[in-house]
Amino acid sequence: MENQILNDALLVYPNPSQDSPVKGTALSIFYVGAAAEKAGLEIDYVDERFDGKERVKELLDQYKPAVIGVSSMTGYQLQETLRIFQYVKDNHRNIKTVLGGVHGSLLPEECVKEDLIDFVVVGEGEETFTELVLEVKGSEDYGKIPGIYWKKNGKIVKNEERPFLSAKDWPFPMTEKNKKYFRLSAEAGELFYLSSRGCPYRCRFCYNIIFNRRKWRLMPFDKFQREIRTLHDEFKFKYLFLNDDNVGSNIKRLREISLFLNSVGLKWGSCIRANDVTRESITIMAANGCDRFLLGVETGSERILRDVICKDLPNGIQDVRNAVETIASSPIKPTYSFMCNIPTETEVELKQSMDFADWIHKTDPKARLGFYVYAPYPGTQLFYESQKMGYKMPSNVQEWSRMSLSNSENLIAENLYYISGLKFRGDISNVKFPGIRRLQILPFELLANIRWSFRFLKYYTLEKYLIKWLYRKALERIQQKV
Ligand code: B12
Ligand code: SF4
């Protein structure tokens, strides 16, 4: 990489997953960095999925910035974050460590207790991080910065809350310094962007209620158009994924977005709720370049959907059935995700989910399906209930970092993650095991099909061990190619 002067801060996006090859744009750090750069700060970026794990060390050793800020979700990314902070504390004790992103925002107090973390930024980081870096370089008067947790003489200090940024003030996240990552994602067909932040719904497992306080803020449409055009002029990409929490609950807006993206000549994808799928919305989207989206089915049990997770679908599972049928009759390729091991879920209800998955697969053979182990994310309502019901909860950052969607105390649920993946996600196997390598995973796919048919989810230890090993090797190969 070219020589650069790094005075102020380094922003890092660690790999979020041990087994996902996704390399979408790390908007989390680019928004924050763009705001800091705009304020005149010297910022550099590392996305470890592209740069590898040594790059952070090289930059820190060479340039010694005042601050290192790392973005983290709960789970594996947090493990990687702690690894980075450990290196900083072992080798550069005077560099301040800042944790930002979803996990720190949900559990700021617990995180700042950790010796490796000097500051936690809660919620949107644009203004907070800029002010924090200026104070680290200046008079170190941290008490006046809204939106942080920090330590003063060993005591935890919680500053006042930072109000939301107005959507019109979200910075344009691409800068000269981080442009190369936008290019890499665009070339991989994985350019991510947002047209809104937050969601008005109240699903009891979702981070939104705490993080976005049920506010759904839409980017002014002319700003969205301008920014997409700028990116498109720069990279001439063909595919865009809108990672909004909720893109579809306003049909007028959805129509505008669809028509606009089509006018730019883009194919695109996004996430949608079942009750926002109508003949009208699907026709507009399919006719205007949308070719895939994600939809959270969560469960085949009416009780769990309504009473446990409060998905707020007016007609319950019937809304999902309608959505599946409507999407099946369109060219859009959907991905449906389920959760298992939801608090109070019975064996019968888990089977209902599997039966529902079979029905979806039969109704729409182009659909992809995935089962994930319910992970009680901190701060959500279901988290507190899970706790009351005796779920063993992590009690510090290190333990949270070991939480994942593919493992839990419940072995059956963990097995289902792998078995359903092998049964329903052949396209992913194609990416991980191209050409002749496909033969490595094929026997496990066949076994997974048999297990699924008989609903036989037990005694999977050896198979799972080998599958995990194969996945790990595949990911290493993919990473070496970048
Ligand atoms: C894209 C995405 C991914 C991508 C990774 C990102 C990428 N660039 O490739 C992929 C697909 C790999 C991914 C994986 C996972 N994801 Co994800 N992902 C998202 C998604 C849809 C968008 C993230 C994004 O870019 N947001 C836009 C940015 C601007 O928002 P932001 O990250 O919150 O950043 C702001 C602040 O948090 C803060 N900030 C962020 N980082 C930093 C750093 C510093 C230093 C500072 C100061 C501030 C700061 O400032 C930013 C600007 O205001 C979010 C939902 C959402 N809409 O945010 C879920 C989300 C973050 N993912 C989530 C989860 C759970 C996961 C998984 C663990 C499981 C899953 N559901 O797939 C996996 C991990 C891998 C695995 N298999 O185990 C949860 C997080 C919950 C939690 N407790 O952490 C979310 C919120 C979805 C949800 N509704 O539950 N994910
Ligand atoms: S609809 Fe989706 S984003 Fe909105 S609260 Fe529910 S799970 Fe979260």
Strand content: 15-25%
Helix content: 40-55%
Uncertain runs with pLDDT below 50, 5 residues or more? 1-5
**N-end to C-end Cα span:** 14 Å
Number of strands: 15
What is the third-level CATH name, the topology of the domain at 9-158?
Answer: Rossmann fold
Roughly what is the average pLDDT, rounded to an integer? 93
CATH architecture descriptor text of the domain at 9-158: 3-Layer(aba) Sandwich
Which sequence of strands runs across the widest sheet? 2-1-3-4-5-6-7
Helix count, DSSP H or I runs of 4 or more residues: 21
Provide the list of bound ligands, each named once: cobalamin, iron/sulfur cluster
CATH class categorisation of the domain at 9-158: Alpha Beta
Shape: globular
Describe this structure in words.
With 482 residues, the protein is of the alpha/beta class. It has a domain at 9-158: Cobalamin-binding domain (Rossmann fold, 3-Layer(aba) Sandwich). 46% of the residues lie in helices and 15% in strands. The strands form three sheets. A seven-stranded mixed sheet has the order 2-1-3-4-5-6-7, sandwiched between helices. Strands 8-11-12-13-14-15 form a six-stranded parallel sheet. β3, α4 and β4 form a beta-alpha-beta unit. α1 crosses α7 (126-137) and α10 packs parallel to α11. The longest helix is centred in the C-terminal third of the chain and has 21 residues, at 461-481. The chain is globular. The relative contact order is 0.09. Bound molecules: cobalamin and iron/sulfur cluster (SF4). Iron/sulfur cluster (SF4) is lined by residues 199, 201, 203, 206, 208, 245-246, 273, 296.
